[in-house]
Amino acid sequence: MTDTASPKISLQDQRSQAMRTKICRAAIDCLDRLGYAETTFAKIQAKANVSRGAITHHFPTKQALVAATAMQLLSNAQGPVERGDSLDVLPVYDLIMTSWTRIVNSSGGRAIVEILVACRTDAELYQLLEDSLLDWDQSNLALIAQSYTSVSGEREDTELLWSIARNFLRGLLLHEKFVSSPEYLTRMMDRFARMMESQLSVRPTPDQETQQ
């Protein structure tokens, strides 16, 4: 009989992963509060309450730490569009609003926007993230196309609409400080979600298509 049990993770590996997670969480907090330029090893060290050596053991440079943090955040950002075993796909309006409230307009969402903006001028950071960001983008679009369809029924159009939605949400986050009131921001989000609702719909499951 073949033993298919997962390999046991050593205590040292568990501690190492816990430390990496702790450092990345501190980096997220610093990126959110201070921005990329003001996020330093010293400030992350103070927030995480660890030694500088603990940070550099896992992440030799600021760019390496920020790149690892970015991939952790992007992995979490797949949540609203992933289709679980229950096939409970969010309605389009709820997808947009949930993406805004739980993903984009959050500490992690603000941190990832800081990182993406920094990639424009930090060549080392961009080089570390370029391939991973492209892979994530394709994966995210594939998840959307699996669960949603545009009114035209064309996959390319579905992916284009979701790209527009992602860019709108990120742009709104940058614009947030210049909006007159939270209520106005909520109205903007509601109107945009309604617009997207007219262009996208939940793709029927195979069973639903058979019943039709």
Q: What is the element layout, followed by pairings?
A:
Blueprint lengths: L10 H24 L6 H8 L3 H7 L3 H16 L14 H13 L2 H12 L4 H25 E3 L4 H21 L6 H16 L2 E3 L3 H6 L1
Antiparallel strand pairs: 1-2
Helix pairs in contact: 1-2, 1-4, 1-6, 4-6, 4-7, 5-8, 5-9, 7-8
- Give the terminus-to-terminus CA distance: 45 Å
DSSP strand tally? 2
Range of strand content: under 5%
Low-confidence stretches: none
Sheet bearing the most strands, described?
2 strands, antiparallel
Helix segment tally = 10
Element string (H = helix, E = strand): HHHHHHHEHHEH
CATH C-level category: Mainly Alpha
Gross CATH architecture? Orthogonal Bundle
Shape: globular
Q: Could you report the average pLDDT, rounded to the nearest whole number?
A: 89
Radius of gyration: 20 Å
The helicity comes to: 55-70%
> Into how many domains do the coordinates divide?
1
Broad structural category: mainly alpha
Provide a concise account of the structure shown.
This protein is mainly alpha-helical and 212 residues long.
